[in-house]
Amino acid sequence: MPVSPADTAAGQSGGVAPADDRYLLVQAGDEKCALPLDRVRRIVRSLSVTPLPGASAELKGLAEFGGEPLTVLDFSRLLGAAPGASPAYPVTVIAWAGPDESHELVGLQVDAVLEVVSVPADNIAAGGDGIVRGDVSLGGEPVRVISLSVLGSVG
Amino acid sequence: MNGVSGERVLLLRHQGRLWGVLHDAVRTVTRGHDGFRVWLREGDITADHVLGVIDNLRIWPADGVLARFWGEKVGGLAVLGTTPVVVLDPGAPPTIFRSDAGSGSSVEPASDSDLGLDMGETP
Fold first, then answer.
1. Are A60 and A73 in contact (CB under 8 A)?
2. CA of B123, closest CA in chain A: separation in Å?
3. Do A53 and B60 count as a contact with CB atoms less than 8 A apart?
4. pTM
5. What is the pLDDT of residues A100-150, one digit of tens each?
6. Would you say B110 and B41 are in contact if contact means Cβ atoms under 8 Å apart?
7. Looking at domain A5-146, does it have CATH number 2.40.50.180?
8. Which residue of B68, B83, B95 is in closest CB contact with A152?
């Protein structure tokens, strides 16, 4: 059943945290990741995907969403995460990828959607310039903080 | 998405997937021993089945995430019903379409009337 990220956020944040500090916590393989909530459009059960011949391991294939084509990525492979306990990815997070001026919708297949969390920017240990913006500890567990703005760029 | 256009597209099925070619890029279509050959302005490709021509198929650009993770050039993306369609770049079709990667059929271009398809031009 589709879940509105706005609805999910309302139940967790109480409107206290700035929008930029809110993240959707997901399980991808053996990694927990925080996706910027303002980039999440929808969460749906795993979409039916058409694989593409010769595609890299990160690219699951193409799906249809809302009458439009959607590129779907295997998020754990994108991160280089080891497979988790649930090898069948049951959830697709549909999110905006790429820079603000030319973003596009992509599907991110993950193992599970966990909750919406608030992560102040000051708490994030800076990472590189790639998709992993940095790391943070939540409840004593390491969480990778994701930037989707670099995902659409080639290279 | 931006840049969506409606185009006339020849629809193909190849290796279990749906593919499209802009109608204007197609010279003619011939039947081979184990499939079809589609003659394009820049060369020819093989296909398991030719399904027909669709008018005003909405095509989205595919130059972002897909281009980053798939090594093939793509003319665009479309959806037919709920099935994704990759619209080929006629100048650089994916490897699986190249004649030398397929059946090795040696048919020559012929009139498209053989298949009842109006390509609007003969070679």
1. yes
2. 31
3. no
4. 0.83
5. 888 899 999 999 999 999 999 999 998 777 899 999 999 999 999 999 998
6. no
7. yes
8. B68
